[in-house]
Design a protein that fits this description.
Elements: H1 3-7, E1 10-15, E2 18-23, H2 34-48, E3 55-60, H3 71-79, H4 84-101, E4 106-110, E5 113-115, H5 117-122, E6 127-131, E7 135-137, H6 151-158, H7 160-169, H8 175-180, E8 186-188, H9 191-203, H10 207-220, H11 226-240, H12 243-254
Parallel strand pairs: 2-3, 3-4, 4-6, 5-7, 6-8
Antiparallel strand pairs: 1-2
Helix pairs in contact: 2-4, 4-11, 6-7
Length: 272
């Protein structure tokens, strides 16, 4: 990997119709920075304008998929003039919406940390493959914020009750539990073989017929609107600018439990 590739927030490679997008911030377990979010939108724009791309594969570098939003990025946006945190939330909401409604089939390879925003993105793909190392969690409330933009996609994939339970408790799911609730479609031991088999199945379909099939499903299922993304951003921004979030972000950065957590809790806020 070149120095430039090491610094790129995502890596993209197109091979025989398959565009592999790799989240590339292994030092932070691929936490989503604003640069990564913008790069994902640009990559999807290019893919949807190209007849060469028939499938998108999303995965992470360094043994993790994505540990959620970049807390340091959010802390900086929170302290900036204007409502930078709301703008950041809107942009992430657009990424999730775009991947969930793209006519291009999508597959995610999920391993290691899949948390917060990464959990939400995992809910937007057509096929989710998980290794046995995977750990899902929604840590937002332990930071004093809200899983606002990903809520519609959590409900769509998991159902109302299970999505609400995980959002409120921040409980962890391993691969078996995630498969049981329908969060992942397959648990795999040999990632490359399982991914190749799934891609072979998808590529048997005619490109136009597959895209038309996805659009038909979109028409039959309510979509998250721009107004809903804006509303979610307002909720997230209000929470992120609160004293509670300030304490939660500081606890995360210093790797301490937040001030409101119970002593001796089995899941402290720095377990991310």
């Amino acid at each position: 990997m070149t120095k430039r590739e090491q610094s790129d927030p995502i890596l993209s490679a197109l091979d025989r119709g398959v565009l592999t997008i790799t989240l590339n911030r292994p030092e932070s377990r691929n936490a989503m920075s604003s640069a990564m979010v913008e790069s994902l939108i640009a990559s999807l724009d290019q893919a949807e304008q190209s007849d060469a791309v028939r499938v998108i594969v999303l995965r992470g570098s360094g043994g993790n998929f994505c540990a959620g939003g970049d807390i340091k990025d959010m802390a900086r946006a929170r302290g900036a003039s204007g409502d930078g945190i709301k703008a950041l939330s809107v942009t992430f909401g657009e990424v999730a919406r775009r991947f969930s409604r793209s006519p291009i089939p999508s597959v995610a390879v999920l391993e290691g940390a899949v948390m917060g925003g990464g959990f939400g993105i995992a809910c937007t793909v057509d096929v989710a493959l998980a290794t046995r190392s995977v750990k899902f969690r929604l840590p937002e409330t332990s930071l004093g914020v809200v899983p606002a933009q990903i809520a519609p996609f959590l409900i769509e994939r998991l159902g109302y009750s299970e999505a609400k339970r995980l959002a409120v408790t921040g409980a962890k799911l391993d691969a078996l539990a995630a498969h049981k609730v329908g969060l992942v479609h397959h648990i795999v031991d040999d990632v490359d073989a399982a991914l190749e088999a799934e891609l072979t199945r998808i590529l048997r379909g005619g490109p136009r017929a597959t895209a038309a099939t996805k659009r038909l499903f979109f028409a039959l299922h309510p979509a998250t609107s721009a107004a809903e993304i804006e509303h979610a951003a307002e909720i997230f921004s209000a929470a992120a600018r609160s004293d509670e979030a300030a304490a939660g972000f500081q606890a995360f950065i210093t790797k301490q439990p937040p001030p409101w957590s119970r002593k001796g809790s089995p899941e402290k806020s720095n377990e991310r």
